[in-house]
Amino acid sequence: MNQIRKKNGILYTDAGIELDDVGKYTIKAVCKNDKGIYSDVVTCKYKTEAKAPDYPEVTPDGGTMDDITFVVITADEGCSIYYTGWNRSYRYICTLHRTNRSTGR
């Protein structure tokens, strides 16, 4: 059993274990002392979920415009923005300026 632990295990560091994908994880861990004796295995299960992003912010937020207007849409960092925009003849009239909500760029 010690050979299996040594062969399959990854030496833990104080940096922790990053659970970087949405899904289920099972972590098994053992300790080994300075004499090479292993502890029993401890098993922990984790489930990670992703929350939906906040709504995008649109400026101006609607209304009647007297002239050519630029619509600015911002979203949380790491999000993509999708939009539609047509006038009565279904021509493209919106200009998208993608900015990062947290930095304003």
Fold blueprint:
Blueprint: H1 2-8, E1 23-29, E2 42-48, E3 57-59, E4 71-75, E5 96-100
Parallel strand pairs: 4-5
Antiparallel strand pairs: 1-2, 3-4
Looking at this protein, list some descriptive labels.
105 residues; mainly beta; three-stranded mixed sheet; 1 helix; 7% helix
- State the helical fraction: under 10%
Shape: rod-shaped
Strand arrangement across the biggest beta sheet: 3-4-5
Beta percentage is: 25-35%
Biggest sheet descriptor? 3 strands, mixed
Q: What oligomeric state do the depicted chains represent? A: single chain
Strands, total number: 5
Residue windows where pLDDT falls under 50 for at least 5 positions: 88-98
**Content-based structural category:** mainly beta
Number of contiguous helices: 1
Estimate the mean pLDDT confidence: 78
The end-to-end distance, rounded to whole angstroms, is: 56 Å
Rg, nearest Å: 26 Å
Which sequence of SSEs, written as H and E, runs from N to C?
Answer: HEEEEE
Question: Explain this structure to me?
Answer:
The chain is mainly beta and 105 residues long. Helix content is 7%, strand content 26%. It contains one helix and five strands; from the N terminus they run αβββββ. It has one helix spanning 2-8; strands at residues 23-29, 42-48, 57-59, 71-75, 96-100. The strands form two sheets. It has a three-stranded mixed sheet with strand order 3-4-5, with no helix packed on it. It is rod-shaped. Mean pLDDT is 78; it is low at 88-98.
